[in-house]
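ARCHIVE RECORD
Type: protein–small molecule complex
Small molecule: tryptophan
Source of inputs: curated submission
Record status: active
Notes field left blank by submitter.
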Amino acid sequence: MARILTGIQSSGKPHLGNLLGAIQPAIALSENEANESFFFIADLHSLTTIKDPQIRVENTHAVAAAWLAFGFDTEKNTFYRQSRVPQVCELNWYLNCYTPFPMLANAHSFKDKSDRLADVNAGLFTYPVLMACDILLYDADIVPVGKDQKQHLEMTRDIASTFNHKHGDIFILPEAQIDETVMTVPGLDGQKMSKSYGNIIDIFQSDKELKKNINRIVSDSTPLEAPKNPDEDTTFALYSLLATPEQVATMRKNYLGGNYGYGHAKKALYELIIDKFAKERQVYNEYINDPDLIEKELAKGEEKAAAVAKKVLERVKKALGFA
Ligand code: ADP
Ligand code: TRP
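STRUCTURE (tokenized, with ligand):
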């Protein structure tokens, strides 16, 4: 039985990129009988950027509701909120003392964030150590992540190896699972869709808001009558990620034929999202309108996660002479 573990920060509302790039593939992995999955919401990590408690709680509920709406089985697996298993903070201190300063100073994600953000705090700098703790505290074997997280997984393995070298085989060395075939979902402006670029599509918005948002997708100024190049258009790219091959072929023909405007394509994309995710949108709303239900789902996993965390932390404390 392999233990799969991954986390998503609650730094914003889940978007189409998170769903297609992370949540759906992780749920597919969890459905394999040979796996046991630990999926969590990294709300401690989101404190590096989100200081408003209410917003963080809302985001946590939104991310949790997205996992639940896409059918994550919380009975078979372990679904929890990072902050409710505080053993991770204790381990964080221990592993800070095994993490070389230059390793953190060379992290791409820190360099990137410290260039962009006004609040460059120490949490942002030590972020990879907390992430290593998320993984090592649960004896995870496999960690499915996006390409941007590859370096963090290498650091996790380095920290664990250093510790094991000094104290014996305390930690399991996790393997990153980076699916190179997972597409990068473009945002409204054609760049990578990301919470930090303000270009997201939130498929759980109300019909009206969703339609308005899809109409914001940037397109060129080719007139309605003229043929259009589907391969250079963001609406077409998004439609292609969701539609059947027949639907894609039809839209391609429409673009090339002329007398088909970007407005038509946006309307088709909107209708496809409403139709394809009808069930998920309904379940998401049921959860969002009943936060107690989300809390109940999370509480189930928090107990299961804490049981594992306590055992592993005990192992670490014994090795360090603290227990
Ligand atoms: P964001 O860039 O919006 O802050 P995160 O860094 O929180 O997203 O990413 C959470 C997960 O979603 C990661 O596994 C990441 O690889 C995946 N993901 C984020 N944006 C996209 C995208 N545009 N296309 C595909 N996957 C994405
Ligand atoms: N850093 C990850 C991201 O931004 C989120 C994360 C936190 C994570 N802890 C983790 C992912 C542990 C995998 C395993 O996407």
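CURATOR ANNOTATION: The longest helix spans residues 291-320.
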